[in-house]
Design brief:
Shape: globular
Oligomer: single chain
Number of domains: 2
Largest sheet: 7 strands, mixed
CATH topology of the largest domain: Quinone Oxidoreductase, Chain A, domain 1
Strand content: 25-35%
CATH class of the largest domain: Alpha Beta
Length: 363
């Protein structure tokens, strides 16, 4: 099968023919129909994070189950599915206490080192799966706890977005922050995650939703998706603008980029007693600085959100329903469709901040 492989860091993806094994116990073989380009992969391609090599990248995919291994009871061949990097074991303390998105026993959903690898090159060299998925490939072989079955009428290019960016943004609002109707919200970043957070705030009934970015095109999309106000951070002091708009700051600030500067801006933009949620993937080892006295004197809260605090087997079908009933707008988020061979061009566009979400079409 064809796949986009990262062979060196930093480096571009290389389209190669690799082999995929047959499904083993608890494994599902998925024919990938669509995959979204997410900034997380770019962090590894640009050497902000490390990863075992070689690796098939990609983690935001949707497709059709082709075959299942022994002990698979959740899905059957022909089912439409979304894959998710929040693969869960179902038995560790985090899974058993309602936090499967931070499962601590990922070895339970992987093949043992002495077993045949799921993916390999023609010479037998094992190929790693990014995020235990490897979604930039014609087929994915994953543990059954890494897929969720969805309604067959859901378009798979839209469904792919739910696999990461949409779930992360919506979940940060719905599940991590649990914002109240009428609350004020600022979202830093108008990419896939930020636009989803804007939509989450709209669906949850926020009174004022301020989208912050440095690209007017993305800010216009944010307005179409529910932002009541926009701020171009290249043109004005975003924190000062937000405080002026709201009379002192927002109830909830969401950082959806992954930069030290915007994390600190989001904190500064939250009001007395406000909450700042860090959603964006920061470069490994990066630190943020906040005034210590504001934590206790102002009772401000700094909260992390990993993949939107999801329980994806429950959350993603709900998000599909929201799209199909018109509440969740996904058509407007897709700015380009490309082939697998164009994937490096797609990531170059991302580096240049062009577009909102690009989707790879496999079929």
């Amino acid at each position: 099968m064809k796949a986009a492989v990262l062979n060196q860091i930093p480096g571009d993806l290389e389209i190669e023919d690799i082999s995929v094994d047959k499904p083993g116990p608890n494994e599902v073989l998925v024919q990938v129909v669509n995959a979204g380009l997410c900034h997380s992969d770019l962090h590894f391609m640009d050497a902000h994070w490390k990863h075992p090599l070689p690796a098939v990248m990609g983690h935001e995919s949707a497709g059709v189950v082709q075959a299942v291994g022994r002990d698979v009871s959740y899905v059957s061949p022909g089912d439409n599915v979304i894959t998710c990097l929040s693969i869960f074991c179902g038995s560790c303390a985090n899974c058993l206490t309602g936090r499967p998105n931070i499962c601590s026993n990922l070895a339970a959903v992987a093949r043992r080192p002495d077993e045949k690898p799921r993916l390999s090159k023609p010479d037998g060299q094992p190929v790693d799966q990014f995020a235990r998925l490897g979604g930039f490939a014609e087929e994915m072989l994953v543990h059954q706890n890494g897929v969720v079955a969805i309604r067959p009428e859901m378009p798979l290019d839209r469904a792919a977005l739910i696999g990461c960016g949409v779930t992360t943004g919506l979940g940060a609002v719905f599940k991590t922050a649990r914002i109240e109707p009428g609350s004020t919200v600022a979202v830093f970043g108008a990419g896939g995650i930020g636009l989803s957070a804007v939509q989450g705030a709209r669906i949850a009934g926020a009174g004022r939703i301020i989208s912050v970015d440095v690209t007017d095109e993305k800010l216009e999309v944010a307005r179409r998706l529910g932002a009541t106000d926009t701020v171009n951070g290249d043109e004005v002091d975003a924190v000062a603008a937000i405080k002026e708009m709201t009379g002192g700051g927002v109830d909830y600030a969401f950082e959806c980029i992954g930069l030290k500067s915007t994390c600190e801006q989001a904190w500064a933009a939250s009001k007395l007693g406000g909450t700042t949620v860090i959603v964006g993937m920061m470069p490994y080892g990066e630190k943020i600085e906040i005034p210590g006295y504001e934590v206790f004197m102002m009772e401000k809260r700094l909260q992390g959100s990993m993949m939107g605090s999801n329980s994806f087997r429950v959350d993603m079908p709900r998000f599909v329903d929201m799209y199909l009933d018109g509440r969740l707008m996904l058509d407007e988020m897709i700015s380009a469709h490309i082939t697998l061979e164009q994937i490096n061009d797609g990531y170059e566009q991302m580096r240049r901040r062009v577009g909102t979400r690009t989707v790879v079409d496999f079929a």
